């Protein structure tokens, strides 16, 4: 039996920290007792340390599923920096020869970071099945559930994958904590009885505000006024790339601060440059789509403004949570123009194929319009993994109903006269 003292000793030896952050020790202790755990901790709270220490203390292989290659690379670099060399990553971006080499030499490693799509490959699964996995970690576990920008279809297969790997002890990590998402994660991982370790999701230093405007021109004026008056740096979220561009220009023209647009249409290097400039305070305001988010860790963001209605509370809270991570006062403003829910309604259905479309894709011998239509990719993905047309149809019907419910809840948040904070944090 591993004692708390052992965890403290490793914490001190390896990192030089004296105390655990809330949730860390509780999670480690539950894992040591053989429980599967869903651990919910805010971004920046130190989720990685949990599986790092677990691997050190038990000296067993830790496999970490992570949704973004950039996150994995960061993590490997950070661990190397802390003196842990037995760590590697397996991603689809690696040259074939490197993948083969890594797979052949897995015995040399204690930690393996892997993208979910790698776990859909037979060779990878065959190799991993030969190993004894001490801990299977699903990082950013909300990717299995939200239907928002972070959703990753490959995450839906992880429940099955985990069982194919001999059902190892499992740790699911996320910063998104609403009860619906929690239940969904556990259900999809086929671990309904997993212990939940939750930290309070409230962020008392973020002031929540909803402002209703009459029309588009008032909305624009209000945005410019807020950006001028509020303490910076800040982020403004848009649901359209075009508006993000236009409003960045407007802010640059009409205020003294420097703004830049950030969205998926920019080349990788310009996105990277904007991130860097924002981190270095050379840009005070980023006009972003939801592409700006996961993995960005600037702790002194003073405001987050939403120009459009987010499609659900979970996404809203996730984006709002990028403000005030340093614990200092911050503000979240949602600008609402009656009728905005129609745009959100449209957006929440983007990516959900109709029955006709599903039928069409199932009839094809190969994937049409690969890369151009995400719906085609999604349907194709499920087809490749053995789902029937009826099952796929049912999946999307349920999703649609769920989306509508979630959007209605978002609208109730805007309209409620009660405490906004209580509405979100329960
Ligand atoms: P998360 O994945 O929860 O967003 P990370 O695991 O990236 O957060 O950790 C964020 C930072 O917190 C890291 O720099 C890490 O070194 C630091 N950290 C983690 N645990 C502790 C601790 N017990 N004491 C002090 N700093 C910690
Ligand atoms: Mg993390």
UniProtKB/TrEMBL annotation:
Domain (Helicase ATP-binding) ranges: 28-195
A Pfam entry, by short name: DEAD
Keyword Hydrolase assigned: yes
CDD domains, per database record: DEXHc_RecQ
Database matches in InterPro entries: DEAD/DEAH_box_helicase_dom, DNA/RNA_helicase_DEAH_CS, DNA_helicase_ATP-dep_RecQ, Helicase_ATP-bd, Helicase_C-like, P-loop_NTPase
Molecular function terms from GO: 3'-5' DNA helicase activity; ATP binding; DNA binding; four-way junction helicase activity; hydrolase activity
Signal sequence segment: none
Domain Helicase C-terminal: 218-373
Gene Ontology cellular component list: bacterial nucleoid; cytoplasm; replisome
Keywords of the record: ATP-binding, DNA-binding, Helicase, Hydrolase, Nucleotide-binding
UniProt keyword annotation of Cell wall biogenesis/degradation present: no
GO biological process: DNA recombination; DNA repair
Annotated NCBIfam families: recQ_fam
Protein known as: ATP-dependent DNA helicase
Organism: Secundilactobacillus paracollinoides
């Amino acid at each position: 039996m591993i004692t708390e003292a052992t965890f403290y000793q490793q914490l001190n030896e390896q990192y030089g920290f004296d105390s655990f952050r809330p949730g860390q020790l509780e999670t480690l202790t539950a894992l040591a007792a053989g429980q599967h755990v869903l651990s919910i901790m805010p971004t920046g709270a130190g989720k990685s340390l949990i599986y790092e220490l677990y691997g050190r203390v038990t000296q067993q292989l830790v496999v970490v599923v992570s949704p973004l290659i950039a996150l994995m690379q960061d993590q490997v670099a950070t661990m190397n920096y802390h003196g842990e060399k037995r760590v590697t990553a397996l991603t689809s971006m690696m040259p074939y020869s490197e993948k083969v080499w890594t797979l052949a030499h897995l015995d040399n490693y204690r930690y393996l970071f892997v993208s979910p799509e790698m776990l859909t490959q037979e060779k990878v699964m065959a190799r991993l099945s030969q190993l004894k996995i001490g801990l299977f970690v699903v990082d950013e576990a909300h990717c299995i559930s939200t239907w928002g920008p972070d959703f990753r279809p490959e995450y839906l297969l992880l429940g099955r994958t985990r069982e194919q790997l001999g059902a190892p002890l499992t740790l699911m990590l996320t910063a998104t904590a609403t009860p619906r998402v929690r239940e969904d994660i556990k259900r999809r991982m086929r671990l309904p009885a997993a212990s939940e370790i939750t930290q309070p999701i409230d962020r008392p230093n973020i002031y929540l505000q909803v402002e209703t405007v009459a029309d588009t021109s008032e909305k624009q004026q209000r945005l410019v006024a807020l950006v001028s008056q509020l303490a910076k740096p800040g982020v403004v979220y848009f649901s359209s790339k075009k508006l993000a561009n236009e409003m960045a220009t407007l802010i640059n023209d009409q205020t003294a601060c420097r703004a830049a647009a950030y969205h998926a249409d920019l080349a990788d290097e310009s996105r990277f440059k904007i991130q860097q400039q924002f981190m270095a305070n050379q840009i005070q305001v980023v006009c972003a789509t939801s592409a700006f988010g996961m993995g960005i860790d600037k702790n002194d963001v003073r405001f987050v403004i939403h120009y459009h209605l987010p499609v659900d509370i979970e996404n809203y809270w996730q984006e709002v949570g990028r403000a005030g991570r340093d614990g200092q006062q911050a503000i979240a403003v949602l600008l609402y123009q009656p009728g905005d829910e129609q745009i959100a309604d449209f957006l929440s259905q983007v990516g959900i194929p109709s029955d006709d479309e599903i039928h069409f894709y199932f009839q094809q011998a190969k994937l049409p319009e690969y890369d151009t239509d995400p719906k085609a990719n999604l349907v194709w993905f499920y087809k490749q993994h053995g789902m029937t047309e009826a099952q796929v149809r049912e999946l999307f019907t349920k999703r649609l109903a769920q989306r509508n419910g979630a959007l209605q809840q978002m609208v109730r948040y805007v309209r409620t006269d009660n405490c906004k904070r209580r509405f979100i944090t329960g």
